[in-house]
Design brief:
Length: about 130
C-alpha cells in the first residue's frame, strides 16, 4: 500500500509541528557573568526595567531598533513561565515570568553580555 508511507510522513510532520509549538523560545547558557537566557542563535536576552505594565512592552520605535524584541511566531502560545504579549505595532513578543525579552544590537557573538546594566535599566534575563 503506497499511502502508508505518505500517511506516516504526514503524522510525523504534524507531531513535530505540535512539539515545536510547545518548545520554550529560549534556553539558558553560561556566560562570563553566569547563566543567562539566550535566543535560538545563542544571543543573550535582556529585560527592560521600564516594562512595568504586565503584558506590555515599553520599548518601541528607535528603542526596539537597538533592542530587538524576541518575536513570537503566529500561533505561539503561553506555557509555564513563558507568555506572548502583543506589541504596539501588533507583533507578538515572548515574555519570561511576565517580562518581555530583547536582544542587544551591540552584542556581536554568543556569550556577549554588553547590554547588562546599560543605562542602569537593562538587565540580562536569567533562568
Amino acid at each position: 500500500m503506497k499511502t502508508a508511507p505518505i500517511l506516516a510522513a504526514a503524522m510525523l510532520a504534524f507531531s513535530l509541528a505540535a512539539c515545536a509549538g510547545s518548545m520554550a523560545p529560549a534556553k539558558s547558557a553560561d556566560t562570563g557573568i553566569g547563566q543567562v537566557l539566550v535566543d535560538g542563535k545563542s544571543m543573550t536576552l535582556y529585560t527592560f526595567d521600564r516594562d512595568s505594565t504586565p503584558g506590555k512592552s515599553a520599548c518601541n520605535g528607535p528603542c526596539a531598533q537597538n533592542w530587538p524584541p524576541l518575536m513570537a511566531a503566529d500561533g505561539a502560545s503561553a506555557s509555564g513561565d513563558w507568555s506572548v504579549i502583543t506589541r504596539d505595532d501588533g507583533g507578538k513578543q515572548w515574555a519570561y515570568k511576565g517580562k518581555p525579552l530583547y536582544t542587544w544590537m551591540r552584542d556581536q557573538k554568543p556569550g556577549d553580555t554588553t547590554g547588562e546594566g546599560f543605562n542602569n535599566i537593562w538587565r540580562v534575563a536569567r533562568p
